Queue: 4 jobs
Job 1
Amino acid sequence: MVGNDIVDLHEAQLASNWERPRFLNKLFTESEQRYIQDAKNPFQMVWRLWSMKEASYKLYTQLCPRRFYDPKGFECTFQNNSGTVKFKGFQSYVKTKETSNYIISEARLHIQKWSSKVVKFKTIDQQDQSEELKTRLLNYVGSAYQLQKSELDIPTLNNGKEQFHISLTHHGCYGAFAIG
């Protein structure tokens, strides 16, 4: 199982106002807010923590299929590019990659090798991006596989014999897929 999330930093700069009153209080615990306050680049720290939470949420919903909104319930800790996210009795191991263009996090139940493949889109249309990401994933795994989604839109790959958990993400000009 795997969860991933990508944040296009240019898009986040344009579309969000993370410094507005109460924004941080709604999404981040006190210890996470200290990470943000102490960071050399608070903007990047906000989106790093957010991507860690989102990746872990996607992993959690593969185990417990239900939709809910509780960003403060997912608490991040990290050192360098690795960390953990805890939610109630659940814990995920998260790796994060930061570039000047995007931040991507990948969550797993156990420490494993990175598998997310990043895609730079040619279009800004979200529907086109979603289709391009699915096409790139299917080209990567081969024509024997089909992409399926559950009632809650949780994606899997299936070839009739085996099923793989996957995670898809896109934001701004970037997307990524990971295979569990």
Job 2
Amino acid sequence: MASILGLDGPVYRFLMRGVELALLNILFILCSVPLLTIGAAISALYTVTLKMVRGEEGSIVYGFWKAFKSNFKQSTIVWVILFIIGGTLTLNYILLPLYTGHLSVIILMGLILFSVVGAVYFVFLFPYMARYTCTIKEAFGNVLKLCLVNPYPTLLIICLVLGPAILTLFSSYLLALCLYFYIFIGFALIAYISSFKMRNLFEKYE
């Protein structure tokens, strides 16, 4: 029992990991407040969590801030691109009822296809850029290739990352529950859990 509850025991390590993720979550939220910096914050978040799952993390604050600064320009450009894509898709969904007949079916199928591709890029681009040094063009191309070759892990990770946010659309109770979850630990915890699957996915091609 003493070894279980000791400083090297699983209970202590579990609690310390929880504290680290809560701190990481606070850093992510603070750096996301300007909105324009969300992309850099996501990249920094995954830089730390990908190191965590490999047992390579050091100082949480220093590691996050260093990654935030080094990836700022590239991640911000990608965030703006994804924001424009997301806004365009949302506008087309809003205008969808204006179309009738076969045209509406064709447009809906196209929107669903582009939405899936957009979800892939939103979920995987920032972790990929956090893991590898590459250009934006290379990141877009490599992420799409990676996900097409590995559809089942890709779908699992997308559901894990976007699932809680999608649940908020179904009821005000789930919205309130998810807000508390995200504020206290949610962003960092989801990134940490998904980083295990992403690590396995990335290491297949390293």
Job 3
Amino acid sequence: MSLPNRFRLVALIFFAGGLVAFFYAFRISGWERVDGGSRFVVPDSGGQQFVKAEILPLLGQYGGIAIGLGVALLVAAQIYTARQRRTVSQDRPPAAPVKIGLARTIARVVLAIAIGVGVTFGYRWYDYVANATSPYDEVGIAINSRLPESLRAWGCSRLKERFARSIPPYGCSDASGRGWR
């Protein structure tokens, strides 16, 4: 299987997974309050299926990221194919494929996963700090409380600007736990 076809196969897998996650996240029929929290209701063949409120935004976000990766891989396959055609049309033999060792391949995969995770959590943290409707978002608090002190201080100052009259969330409170630091 040639390299562009591999790109297209992986892009198709990302598209399929992204679309499934995206449509599952957005085919909700409503939400209800249960046990002091909210759950989204997703229609199921045997009745109704309940989904926790935190899962759906993550599914929508990961679905969008997977679709974006699929588009990027398709563009890469098209660029690679165009370059190969150009070298053949200029009567030059196509460039020999570069052999990459197993260690470099694993390092690149690990680096790509680390960048993807970093971007995903970074976006989720920034969205919590800059756009949250409440300072008590569980995922945002968990991410913010685990960041280095300089980023946490900046995030807490943004939250304090927006929610000055609220009790600060975990990681942004002073020693008493009732005031902003």
Job 4
Amino acid sequence: MTIALIVLHAAPEADNPRADTAVRLAGAMLAEGKEVRLFLVGQGIGLLAPAREFAESTHALFLELLELGLTVQCCGTSLKSQGWAGSLPDGVTKSSMKGLSGWVSAADEVVCF
């Protein structure tokens, strides 16, 4: 099975569709039967937060993809620097750059947003 890794470092923002594109790509890759891994780093941590009006569909799709088998890890340092104080959604685990390095090594395809 093909392993696809998407690294998201952009926050869901109205004027910057990178987070939306990353989540939609993850869904398309899952539909193709790929194992899809999403690593959230930097402002990408914002995908975990309850969605603002402009990002409701992105956040809803993200939660749906978690239920469909999307594997998600997020950078612990980024969680801290972005002020994340809440618990992580089911299916999301805290990781590190070492964890990301392992995922990059195992991936057949890597895309960064």
